[in-house]
Amino acid sequence: MIRKQARQRRDYLYRRALLLRDAEVSEKRAKLRASLASGKPLDPSIANDKSLRKDYQYDESTPDLGVNEQLDLDDEYAQLSGIVDPRVLVSTSRDPSARLSAFAKEIRLLLPTSIRMNRGNLILPDLVKSAQSAGLSDIVLLHEHRGTPTALTLSHFPHGPTVSFSLHNVVLRHDIPGSVRGTVSESYPHLIFDGFTSPLGKRIVKVLKHLFPPREAITSKNKMGNRVVTFKNIEDSIEVRHHVFVRTGYDSVELAEVGPRMTMRPFEIRGGTLENKDGDVEWHLSQYTRTAKKKNYL
Fold this sequence. Notes:
Domain Brix: 86-275
GO molecular function: rRNA primary transcript binding; snoRNA binding
CATH topology of the largest domain: Rossmann fold
Organism: Metarhizium anisopliae (strain ARSEF 549)
Structural class: alpha+beta
Strand content: 25-35%
CATH class of the largest domain: Alpha Beta
CATH superfamily of the largest domain: Brix domain
Distance between the termini: 38 Å
Largest sheet: 11 strands, mixed
Shape: globular
Radius of gyration: 22 Å
Oligomer: single chain
Protein name: U3 small nucleolar ribonucleoprotein protein IMP4
InterPro entries: Brix (IPR007109), IMP4/RPF1 (IPR044281)
């Protein structure tokens, strides 16, 4: 079984690498055709690439799909997105503190179709194996330092990706002034993503939104729901807020924060699942990024 999963993962990553290469060639050929049709000068890196002219006459009928459009055809989430609700496992590092356990419980309440499991003494490969055998779609692993949540690792099954975030300014429900007390609503939330404009930002959005089940179409007031989760990107820091709302008029609502409240900063996207340390690194925060000229990646 383990060999079969490893073979399937290798085959998937190999197909994706070939698709990425072919998509880049197709995009360059589309720019070449557009330049020939308009008479505008072409970028020297494309004009001097003789490999683009190979079989050019047989490429006229192929659609001019960009890299991202072609990758979406073989996307990790494309097969079951919108068809089957995600089943997310929320767990922690071993021997968690009381604060990390409380934070894991609040993350479980934030994700309506998730389950929480006490890790005990399970090592990482066994944890991933048990999650896959139970038919779960994702795993969220929380880490801490001296009782303070410091990192969140998100891995999608069966072939990845695995995204790592650092956590900052984590505030639990009962520490938020004026937050809603009592039972937390577990209705499917509305999602708000703001400020994600780059390809990397859209990749992060795709990973995060597939942790939540899709909502039904709003056909009446009863199907409006009463929860909203916001992810706002501010200079590569993702501010996360969780609110409930009540309609107070035809075009007005009243918000009340539920929590938890936190700031997430991505630092690595890796192919493969959580236990696979040899997966290809799609993106990582460079060691010189903080000292170089400020650049927003998301």
